[in-house]
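Researcher: Structure prediction, please.
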Amino acid sequence: MNPNLDLLQPYPFEKLNKLKAEANVSTDLPHIALSIGEPKHQSPAFVLKAMADNLDKLANYPTTKGIPELRDSISHWAKKRFSLNTLNSDTQVLPVNGTREAIFSFTQAMVDAKPNALVVSPNPFYQIYEGAAFLAGAKPHYLPCLEENGFNPDFENVPSEVWENTQILFTCSPGNPTGAVIQLDELKKLIALSDKYNFVIASDECYSEIFIDSVDAPVGLLQACAELGRDDYKNCVVFHSLSKRSNLPGLRSGFVAGDAYLLEKFFQYRTYHGCAMSIPNQLASIAAWNDEEHVKENRRLYTQKFNAVLDILSPVMNVTQSDASFYLWAKTPINEEEFAQRLFAEQQVTVLPGSYLSRTIDGINPGSNRIRMALVAEVDECIEAARRIRALIESL
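Model: Predicted structure follows.
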């Protein structure tokens, strides 16, 4: 048995289910879930049609590398979206079954499990970063994302001995759960650190297409590389997905792009790992990557929800518009676990305590007295949830 399995912590939703099970529910209000980041908007009909029209291709084994047409559509989208000079669809793009499995397997392929090997991650974070590090034989190192630093890690004050042992730096921009975006100048500084200390930057950008209509689109790691004239994207890879962008979480479709040498090694790993995307899924993915109108409509709906929810909550709660993503990272007037449990018991609204997404380091847990709210429900449900949250706060 792999002894590193004992290092894994319960997943946040396991903790949440336990918290809810211990609640003394005192209402028969219909339940509204703002806890899990699963998009509830309609999946694009033309994508579903593309899949249905090609179900006969389930009779064919898919290849790990995917069909050329999919890689071409991904390359075209990424070049246009992030102003890239080039992105070779044959060597710098690899389709994957969503970012979750890709982040995990990429870590297994990249980590050299020698003493002191570190995988550096923001804190709070997507728990796959931590689990992937442990199971690859590395140790996670957490960088707190605090309000005074715009909810991004303070990269400049990371000790050199940490960078010297870093094998992978995970960035998440827009961030989960904070929604914070790492700006272009900061990404360029990280690239310089990668050059100096020779670590891989793995940028999780799966929320990049969800942002308020009136602001600029979030920048990306490869975009920073391109501005520096680094079209080889040395030591840099990005992870993207159709789950949030196109409301297709069940399609399990995304891609990894960047450094051709790293992707060659990752591809070698994946040929043994056996994670090829089915051909109907690939053809449906092409349809999604080739269309932007449904993505614009998606953003319009999220903008509508953010505006309505913040109008209700801002007068009574420390909560502000996130840079991007569909999350609000709100401060609670009482302990975050107690607040979440009472909100479920008294108002039948489920949110995720921030401490479930964070680790306590040097006595500080960046998720303390915070909750993550995922505005994934329909507009009317989000508005009703906000009214109930306000009612609880006003009753405290």
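Model: The longest helix spans residues 293-313.
Researcher: Thanks, that helps.
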